[in-house]
Amino acid sequence: MLTPRLTLITQAADVPEPVLLARLSAFGALPPEARARVAVQLRDPELSGAALHALGRRLRDATAALGASFLVNDRLDLALLLGADGVHLGRRSVAVADARALLGAGAFVSVACHGVDDVLRAAEAGADAAVLSPIFATPGKGPPLGLAALREARARLAAASRNVAVLALGGIDAASAPACLAAGADGVAAIRADFSGVLPAPRAG
User: Of 47, 69, 97, 163, which has the maximum CB count within 10 A?
Assistant: First the structure.
């Protein structure tokens, strides 16, 4: 799959499923090549396994109809059951290589990163994307890294001849997304923000 320019992360307490589906459907007006750069990531750790699987099936259907990608947070078993395009791995998840061994070499694998050193490690591990957060202030997520972290990550990856997509997460909305992309992010991810069917412009360079 293509690196997402926008990833919508599920969290039903903040964005109920009908709202998420309405936001997703708004991308239907975009051309297919733009819709292919949208992803939905199934998260919602407070849900039971059965409820998470049921939600995942509905989101898998919705993303497939749209031509968007579908990712699963941590749960490799659900990723397999749902035919997900890939997984997002947290700090306590399995290694990137182990995820690929189970899901297949073509699976998209992103890794949670909370500093620039983590981004370099994700690249070394062979991840497709490093999700760097929090870029801006986000409740309960610690001090924000700021746009400088995105610039530093891009510079250090170039200096080390490492290739991994950098996705920005944390307090990002439609107004701040362009600044993240200008600072070096390849895409942005959000839980609460409403992008209203508008895909952030690609990173220059």
Answer: 69
Q: How far apart are CA 66 and CA 4, in angstroms?
A: 14
**pTM (global) more than 0.85:** yes
Q: What is the 3-state secondary structure (H, E, C) of 124-179?
A: HHCCCEEEECCCCCCCCCCCCCCHHHHHHHHHHHHHCCCCCEEEEECCCCCCCHHH
In the Cβ-directed half-sphere of 20, how many Cα atoms lie within 13 Å? 28
E strand or H helix at 121: helix 116-125
- Reported in sequence order, the residue ranges of 36-144 that DSSP labels E, i.e. its strands, are 38-42, 69-73, 86-89, 108-113, 129-132
Q: How many residues does the chain have?
A: 205
List average pLDDT for each run of 10 residues in the chain, which is 205 residues long.
96 95 95 97 93 97 98 96 97 94 96 98 98 91 94 97 97 96 97 91 78
